[in-house]
Amino acid sequence: MRRLRPCLGAAAAVGLAAAGATALVAGNASGATTALSNRWYAAAPYLMPLDNDPPDAAAIMDATGLKAFQLAFVLAPNGGGCSATWGGTAPVSSDTAVQSTINTIRAKGGDVSVSIGGYGGTKLGQVCADAASTAAAYQQVISKYGLHAIDFDLEEPEYENTAAIKNEIGAAKILQQNNPGLYVSVTTAGTADGTGWFGKQMLLEAKAQGFTPNNFSIMPFDGGFSGAAAQTAALTNFNSVLQSTFGWSQATAYAHEGFSGMNGRSDSGEYFSQADFQTVLDFATSHNMDRFTFWSLNRDRQCTPADNGGRTSGTCSSVAQNAWDFAKYSVKFAGVTPPTTTPTPTPTPTPTPVGCKAAWSSTAVYTQGNEVSYGGHNWKAKWWTQNGVPTASDWGVWQDEGTC
User: Fold this and answer.
1) Residue 350 per-residue DSSP state
2) 37: closest CA among 337, 343, 297, 339?
3) N or C: which end of the chain has fewer CB within 10 A?
4) What is the pTM of this model?
5) SS3 for 83?
């Protein structure tokens, strides 16, 4: 199994603070606020609020017009137990530090979603007894911060654990039911054919439980991708996976599909420039995709000259850029109004019936090319036959020529 590093738990391979090892400080409760449109939650880039040299969210909002942030990551306690923590160390129940960041964003008219999981660390679905207890732990987070959106980032090692994925998908369904209007995204690893075996098993689990989130997003990086063309090809293939799994039309599948990219240099040394983001953005908006996001705002600034281009960092992109260049693509996505109704399929024209041939007779002898009518269809004999009832079959004597 190839190991992918979506959502930069990002940093396991390059000595950064991995998603499962991030220590955030604790704090206080907050009531619900007025929700933004779902389009903003769909566009929210990931932000580690107290690690990887967190940028000033207010400054990003002022510079770009960004309104929504995807805060990462909520995990199970490192010492064990079924309760929500930031990064495995700081209980959500007593948090004040992340709350302060949220308050700053909301004071400027913005809002946040919270991402659970990420690459590495212990996920609640792995340690909680069942879906109900997993959901109860996540409900603490929703209630604490008055959330209108939540992201299930299901990847290694959790998504290789069948029981854990069953708990996570079951919890997502419970939260969706118990919090009307909650925007729910499910993010997982991306591969050239859309997503890998474990990602496809996760989709099958969602189907089995009758759970449909606002979107299933893939992360097409850290898997041999080279620029936007490889990413849009993966998104096209993932659309086919969604169609075949859920029985959706192409348009419905795109309406439930999302992209989560990585700006600049990835863990495996791939490079994704501003031009690549624009290409994927154009693809996402032209196909009416539901989500466009990236890892991460902590990286959305240029490295120092000595570092630029030479390493993968959790605090800069390793490509030439102005600060917050990549956040501007999220703002563009949020500004594109998606269709308000499911596209009306083009009706299939009703064929004009043709005249019926002479009726088939059980006593007549027919040879290749002879035509008859039977059961409201015309039929053509493929070879000699007598008393062979016309019926559609690849190996039968009769070829169905359609209604008459």
Assistant:
1) P
2) 337
3) N
4) 0.78
5) coil
Distance CA(204)–CA(188), nearest Å, equals 14
Q: Which residues contact 175 (CB under 8 A, 6 or more apart)?
A: 135, 138, 139, 142, 150, 182, 184
Q: How many CA atoms lie within 13 A of 307 on its CB side?
A: 15
* Cα→Cα distances 180→82, 174, 177, 354, Å: 24, 11, 6, 54
Q: How far is CA 173 from the centre of its chain?
A: 16
Catalytic residue check, 257? no
As beta bridge partners, residue 184 has: 150
Mean pLDDT, range 318-337, rounded to an integer: 95
Q: What is the pLDDT of residues 15-54, one digit of tens each?
A: 332 232 222 222 334 445 789 999 999 999 999 997 899 9
* Residue 349: DSSP 8-state: P
Greater model confidence, 397 or 129: 129
Nearest Cα residue to 284 out of 348, 344, 220: 220
In which band, very low, low, confident or very high, does the pLDDT at 127 lie, cut at 50, 70 and 90? very high
Structure tokens at 272: 């994704």
CA trace torsion 187, 189, 195, 199 (10° rounding): -70
> What are the CA-CA distances from residue 393 to residues 120, 178, 219, 343 (Å)?
54, 51, 44, 36
Tens of pLDDT, residues 382-394? 777 878 888 776 5
Q: Kindly indicate the confidence band of residue 364, based on its pLDDT and cuts at 50, 70 and 90.
A: confident
Q: 5 — alpha (psi -120 to 50), left (phi > 0) or beta? A: beta
Strands 271-272 and 371-374: unpaired
> Which residues, other chains included, contact 94 with Cβ-Cβ below 8 Å and sequence gap of 6+?
26, 27, 28
Task: For tokens 């995709």, name the residue.
Answer: 289
Structure token pair of residue 102? 């949220």
Q: Using an 8 Å Cβ cutoff, are 86 and 118 in contact?
A: no
What pLDDT score was predicted for residue 32?
Answer: 52
CA angle 38, 39, 41 (to 5 degrees): 65
Look at residue 172 and give its three-state secondary structure.
helix
CA dist 140 and 265 (Å) reads: 35
How far apart CA 304 and CA 279 sit, in angstroms, is 27
355-372: average pLDDT: 84
